[in-house]
Structures are given as structure tokens and as C-alpha cells.
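Running this now, will post back.
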Amino acid sequence: MAAKTIDDYIDGLGDWRADVVRRIRELVDEAAPDAESSIKWAQPVWQSGGGPFAYVKAFPRSVNIGFWRGAQLDDPDGMLQGEGDRMKHVPIRAVDDIPADAIGHFVRQAVALNRELGNPARRG
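Update: finished.
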């Protein structure tokens, strides 16, 4: 059964990944308290400034927090990964490995870019 809420998504993981997603959710909500969150594309997604800015996707060996405008974010430590020209992500393999300060920094930038540039899910 597909998750209808972020809590359903977390509960469906049932292992260490649930703790990682729960902590990431806290960090995103702290950095962007006015953002809306929901399940879209079968994963938790946060929206602000007219479109999505961040998502979380659990895989068997990692949890990715990704950003629609990841290629545009200031990333002095080179944490963001991905081959695309737009979206980038940070893979996380344990709660203790969550780069809390960097996630807050990325979220605030992503929200600001959405406010400035509009919905990143629209090409054109």
C-alpha cells in the first residue's frame, strides 16, 4: 500500500531509515517552517515559493535528501551528488551521519531560489 502521509512513509520503512527520514523531516521543517509537506511521486516532498524544493527517498542502503535546484546551491564542502544539470542529493547512511547544518543551509537556499525563480519542476 502506498504511503498517504509522511508518517505512513516513515512507518513503512521499519528500520534505521525511518530514524533518518524522521530527523531529516525535523531539519527541513526547522529551516523552512512555512513550507508544505506531502507525499508526491511516492516520497516525502516539501514545497515553498510556488513549487517543490526538497524530497527524501529511502533506498536499501541509504536515504537521499534531494533538492530540485541542487546544481544552483552553494555547496562549499561538495556534499551534493548527482549527474543531472538541476537536481542533486546528499546520501545518508546513518542518523549520526546527517549533516544537520548543511541541510539547513541547503533548505534555506532552495526556498529562497524558489521565491526568486518560481517552480523548479516546470521547464521552460
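Residues 100-117 form the longest helix (18 residues). More later if anyone needs it.
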